[in-house]
Amino acid sequence: MRVRMTGLAGVIAIAALLVGAAPASAAPGDASAYGARLNVTLLGNPAVNAEPFAAANANGPTQNTFAGVDLTGILKTGLINASASRDEKSGGVYSRASTADVRVDLLSKVTGKISAELVEAECAATQKGLVGKSKLAGVNLGKLGQVNADPAANTKLDVQLAGIKIAEVIFNEQIKNNDGSLTVNAIHIKLLQGVLGSIGTGDVIISSATCGPAGLPIPMASGAGLWIGLGLLGVVSAPVAFVALRRRASLNAA
Q1: What would the mean pLDDT of 191-199 be, rounded to a whole number?
Q2: What total number of domains does the chain contain?
Q3: How far apart are the first and last CA of the chain?
Q4: Residue 118 half-sphere exposure, CB side, CA atoms within 13 Å?
Q5: What is the C-alpha separation between 173 and 52, in angstroms, rounded?
Q6: Is residue 151 domain-resident?
Q7: Does the pTM exceed 0.90?
Q8: For residue 68, is it within any domain?
Q9: Range of the domain at 186
Q10: 16 in a domain, yes or no?
């Protein structure tokens, strides 16, 4: 049996299809975290590239654990935990990374022992914006100096050898990315290639969390979703109305 739809009935049917096919909300934001990442080249030694340990993502795996990093002469850690999540209703995202029993040997000949009982980074994105922070527990920076347990954003300590800056250590590094997201690195060690001296080049990051911007749900029943639905309806109904007018004009001419 063929069903013929004309006039308003056809428009209503098309609108029903549009509402049924449209998603309930806009795509929410993303979030990720990891415990440690290394990309270092020391003088006279081959490069050491280690992918993010215990990487987690709001798209899965949302939680990850790694028993510990043991890279002789560079970094040793205990248990690493990372997590990332998304609130489908609000569009908000959250991520966190924690690394226990951290010991950095990379700069030990210059700074002495650098260690921490716990290094954490976290960030959250909501419709109000993005926030991030880092937390350090049981920190010993040797000759490097001191840092608060809750360091201010982008707290930086320089590492010098014979008066020459060879590296910098950034605590609670907060980077606003081009896509609108925020990256929080609890500890970021940068080896600097200087003209007069260097022990190597590269980066060591301990506990990193990235999130946002938050997604924006758009319910189709009200608000912006309603206007989007009406806009789509207008796009489809306009050709239908045009065909109807042409058919009526043809009948009048006949």
Answers
A1: 67
A2: 1
A3: 30
A4: 10
A5: 17
A6: yes
A7: no
A8: yes
A9: 31-211
A10: no
